[in-house]
Amino acid sequence: MEHSYLGTGIGWRPEIAAAVEALAEAGRVDWVEAVAENVCPGALPDSLLRLRERGVTVVPHGVSLGLGGAERPGADRLAALAQRAEALGAPLVTEHIAFVRGGGELTGSARLEAGHLLPVPRTRDALDVLCENVRIAQDALPVPLALENIAALVAWPDEEMSEGAFLAELVERTGVRLLIDVANLHTNHVNRGEDPLAALDALPVHAIAYVHVAGGVEKDGVWHDSHAHPVPEAVLEVLAALYERACPPGVLLERDDDFPAGGELAGELAAIRRVVDAGAGERPDVPPDVPPDVPAGVAAAPGAARQRLALRQTALLSALVARTPVPEGFDRTRIGVQSRALAAKRAGVVAKVAPELPEILGAAYRPAFLRYAAVRPFAGGYRRDALDFAAYVLDGRGGTHDPAVTRQLTAWWRERSGPAPLPARRPRLRGRVFPGPRQPSHVFIRMRDRLRSKLP
Fold first, then answer.
1. What's the alpha-carbon Rg for the chain, to the nearest Å?
2. What is the widest separation between alpha-carbon atoms in the chain?
3. Model pTM?
4. Which of 279, 362, 379, 450 is most enclosed, with most CB atoms within 10 A?
């Protein structure tokens, strides 16, 4: 199983694009990883284009395929990931061993979206479905696929395999590569009592494409994989243990929020390099027992296995986002913590997609959104979510009664609720009429549309 050498990398984010370019120019970063869904193939960010011109490898990292879900991966999502791999000239693409949605035809219920990566039960049913989904993805992608182990707050009852055994059989049956996140191994150690060293011992280390390192924070005995804090010593210790067992082709620092200055990022990268160099120097150079790149075939998962998995995953997801009863065997306290975390993350993403909403509502934004999330499960699409939240507030359920706020929010809602020019009539929500701005002139509309056409 041949791998491209990557070296030391960092997660590229728009907020730290300049710092990442400076680190690359100084020779402290060999490659970067970009969230696939945040990159448009026809309009790549200038920063990524400059990095590519310097010879810096860019790997697209997907978050929405849901290969661990009960449904087969959507052809449109696979095509989008393939397009990004080709546009970036990437040597591979990566995704997660997780499910992100539930409901639908397999359960005869409404579709639900988690807006987050949720753990797959380590059962035979789940492994059969995952293996088939992985082979579907491999056939659709122009470059090799690597899958990441995720962090989890909740544990499935009656699991049949350890994480290491689950990953080893997945590789054996599909030939897929692995993206091992040592921060997630630490998270699962704190939150679920799983031994990271035992997981490393069971891993097929020859299949590791690269490694993730990230920071987090512990609150009330729960480790939050925040990607917004410095990398702790405990995570570096797991990284050192991995490099005592293998020399993966690359290691990457992830940071997704509360971004520090470039100097602090450089310091974290240096600490990671020291661990990697020490491990590589101490590890005996023993060639691994390498299996074939692609096994002869993977049997199709029985339809009954998909349906059983769909029912279990939908029940868990519904408890998390729709406040339905917690399925038997799950820790109710942990489900509550996860549910609140999902709602808070959803509020944060909507605030980024529609920054005018927290500006208009001020301190009332977050509590109003959490009330909305409690009665309106996420069904997909954050822009639609932002509009529905605004309608919820205008309908009198958001807790604001300030006429000025109502006017601003109504104007915002009317401007974005459809592609056509603003209607002359006022919107009516649940029988209530809200004042709106005057109908704009045709000159204004033409100017607005011309500006919109130039936006990325």
1. 23
2. 76
3. 0.86
4. 279
